[in-house]
Design brief:
This protein is α/β, with parallel strands linked by helices and about 675 residues long. It folds into three domains: about 1-160, 2-Layer Sandwich (Chitobiase, domain 2), CATH 3.30.379; about 165-505, Alpha-Beta Barrel (TIM Barrel), CATH 3.20.20.80; about 515-675, no CATH class. The chain is about 40% helix and about 15% strand. It contains 25 helices and 18 strands. An eight-stranded parallel barrel has the order 8-9-11-12-13-14-15-16, surrounded by five helices. Strands 1, 2, 3, 4, 5, 6 and 7 form a seven-stranded mixed beta sheet that branches. It has a two-stranded antiparallel sheet with strand order 17-18. α4 (about 180-190) links the parallel β8 and β9 (about 195-200). α8 (about 295-305) packs across α11, α19 (about 530-535) crosses α22 and α23 packs antiparallel against α24.
């Protein structure tokens, strides 16, 4: 009898696997090459891992973490505890072979091969970095039927398309505590991202503990800064996950925080004594370091002397963006310096400044990286040019990236990956560092290292930052890893639903914290209607929400309705699909597919009105809900009862649904409604 049950279970596993197709796998990033084969590997609590070769010790930490995450998903609680040494379990079902220790630097080998058959799993990789990517893929491959967990039999050969797959987090505007950084490092590793760009200094704050200049954290951080031990801990945490940490101190502009402590190196005519202060709003400010003052370089050299040893990587980001030059223009001494040094304009003067920093950083083994404004004919070719400007700044999207590559510079793309702008998933996913229209030689293409999602923090706090980074950054990670032809949005959205859920396992709060915000708005009443309405709304895009940087401040908690809404309203996507089906075929079934939304939206409005009697925070977006309810009623009459109605009234209601005046959100269904006119 026992044998019969066992056979039935094995058959169930086989049948389940037989139904699996490649497109059913929820892998992200999608591997370069994958071949499914017949059979499965069945999991049990006797499952073990063995490691051979000459890897870095981080592989033992990574493999142990893999086992615990596997336990969490399966409830098997495998018997193997902590991996600590080479070849400690030669009989293990999972064999990891690493040739050598990987370096946490760009252009390292991160490839891996993963083979699964009925009785063994093998990960082969030149470095432990590749092996850890293989473990992430293996974890994503986990399947189940009604009684058991298994892996499908297959072969994967995989490597990244780009070597630089980064995420920038701005901790200078709204400070982000250590736990926020660490959980996002975990998520990055899961998505095979390998560069954490840490924006640590800006007009709004200095976030690094300084032993030699303690007044920087005392006067310019509001008590929110990372101790040097915390920084070392985060660098180690990132190293264990195969991630390079690159710091940024933004100079010579964005300097209010530095100059609040060292006004004597500012560019104001009186050296700015007593007139510089940490900024509380956002925007572009005038505070700029004086490139003509020798003390500027003395201070910066001493700062870099203390900070550089905290970060073992070979690149240091010096910012260099958005220097409006107003303080330089009004300072006669600086203008005279330009003339005497044959500097034609402020760009030349900033180049003079940048080139002074190159040897300061070189003595610590660091090369310069900076925003695209640092690119000039005199900039060292060791520098990386960080392309960020595009159509929002009146420039061609990605233009500076191509120019940098053609001029002999290594370059990284962030234009199109500014996730703080709350642009759509699709816009980021289809933004490629090397577009198909780019005419580049193989040597020029090789200089394009990859891309970096940019999370500027004017409008994020620890409460909502994860929801602004994820899950869209997972799509960016795929764009930077996978083949350029992996662009199917239907597949992406399908896979992303699973990936988004799995990110919670790593501590990411993008799902759970939405409920926290909504409960606060509802005054601890039912949040069903609020949640349903949030799935129709998106925060205002680009920089339109913040009213010129003066609506919200660096001490603002950001716990409003807009902070609960995502960049891709899920019900709006579903509604658009229903509308397209109906317009193609006006069957009763497709008609109901559309009208059910209208009925739901009218009910939402009724429920929100009732909730608002004891929830003042609902009032700002009630007009938007009412407009949607009113036009829903009109469309119901038109579609179900064939009543044409007053076209002027309908058009007026439709435009009310296009309003961007309520609660910093917009209805994401406007364009779909417009199709029905």
């Amino acid at each position: 009898m026992k044998q019969k049950i066992t056979l039935l279970l094995l058959l169930a596993i086989f049948v389940s696997n037989a139904q699996i197709k490649i497109e059913q796998l929820d892998l992200m990033p999608w591997p370069q090459k994958i071949d499914l084969s017949a059979g499965t590997f069945a999991l049990s609590k006797n499952f073990k891992v063995n490691i051979t070769g000459n890897p870095n010790s981080r592989i033992f930490i990574g493999a142990t973490r893999f086992l615990r995450r596997l336990d969490g998903r399966t409830g098997l609680f495998v018997k193997q505890d902590f991996l600590t040494k080479i070849n400690e379990a030669p009989e293990a079902q999972l064999q990891i072979n690493c040739v050598r220790s990987g370096k946490i630097e760009i252009n390292e080998n991160e490839s891996y091969q993963l083979t699964i058959d009925s009785n063994k799993i093998i990960i082969n990789a030149e470095t432990d970095l590749g092996a850890m990517h293989g473990l992430e893929t293996l974890l994503q491959l986990l399947q189940n039927n009604g009684t058991s967990f298994y892996f499908p039999a297959l072969n994967i050969s995989d490597s990244p398309r780009f070597t630089w797959r980064g995420l920038m987090i701005d901790a200078a505007r709204h400070f982000q505590p250590v736990d926020v950084i660490k959980r996002n490092l975990d998520a990055m590793a899961a998505m095979k991202m390998n560069v954490f760009h840490w924006h640590l200094v800006d007009d709004q704050g200095w976030r690094i503990e300084m032993k030699n200049f303690p007044k920087l954290q005392e006067l310019a951080s509001d008590g929110n800064y990372y101790t040097q031990e915390e920084i070392k801990g985060i660098v180690k945490y990132a190293d264990e996950r195969g991630i390079l940490v690159m710091p940024e101190i933004d100079v010579p502009g964005h300097a209010s925080a530095i100059l609040s402590v060292f006004p004597e190196i500012g560019s104001k005519i009186d050296n700015g004594v007593g007139s510089y202060a940490v900024e509380r709003g956002s925007g572009i400010f005038n505070a700029t370091l004086d490139p003509t003052n020798p003390k500027t370089y003395e201070v910066l050299s001493a700062i870099f002397d203390e900070i550089c040893p905290l970060f073992p990587g070979s690149y240091f980001h010096i910012g260099g963006d958005e220097n409006n030059g107003k303080e330089w223009d009004t300072n006669p001494k600086i203008q005279e310096f330009k003339k005497s040094h044959n500097l034609a304009n402020n760009h030349d003067l900033q180049t003079y400044f940048n080139m002074k920093l190159v040897p300061i950083l070189k003595k610590h083994g660091k090369n310069v990286m900076g925003w695209e404004e640092i690119m000039t004919k005199d900039m060292t070719k060791d520098a990386i040019i960080h392309a960020w400007r595009g159509t929002n700044e009146g420039l061609a999207s990605g233009g500076s990236l191509i120019t940098a590559a053609k001029n002999g510079y290594k370059t990284v793309l962030s234009n199109g990956y500014y996730i703080d702008l709350m642009l759509s998933l699709e816009s980021h996913y289809k933004n490629d560092p090397i577009s198909k229209t780019s005419i580049l030689t193989p040597e020029e293409k090789a200089r394009i290292l990859g891309g970096e999602a940019a999370m500027w923090s004017e409008l994020v706090t620890p409460l909502n930052i994860d929801s602004r980074i994820w899950p869209r950054t997972a799509a960016i990670a795929e764009r930077l890893w996978s083949d350029e032809n992996v662009i199917d949005m239907v597949s992406l959205r399908k896979r992303l639903k699973t990936v988004s859920f799995r990110l919670e396992e790593l501590g990411i709060t993008h799902i759970r914290n939405k409920e926290v915000i909504l409960r606060n708005i509802a005054n601890n009443q039912s949040i069903v209607a609020l949640n349903d309405f949030s799935n129709l709304c998106e925060p205002l895009k680009n920089y339109s929400r913040n009213g010129g940087g003066k609506k919200y401040f660096m001490f603002s908690p950001l716990s409003l309705f807009a902070d609960a809404c995502s960049a891709d309203a899920s019900d709006a996507i579903d509604f658009d699909e229903a509308v397209n089906k109906y317009l193609k075929d006006k069957s009763i079934e497709n008609q109901k597919g559309v009208t059910r939304f209208f009925e739901k939206w009218m009910n939402i409005n009724t429920d929100l009105i009732a909730l608002s009697a004891n929830a003042p925070l609902i009032q700002p977006f009630l007009p938007l809900s009412k407009s949607l309810s009113d036009i829903s009623e009109q469309f119901l009459l038109r579609i179900e009862k064939n009543q044409i109605g007053n076209s002027g009234v309908i058009n007026g209601l439709l435009e009310q649904c296009n309003s961007k005046k309520h609660a910093d959100v917009e209805l994401a269904v406007y364009n779909s409604l417009k199709k029905l006119l």
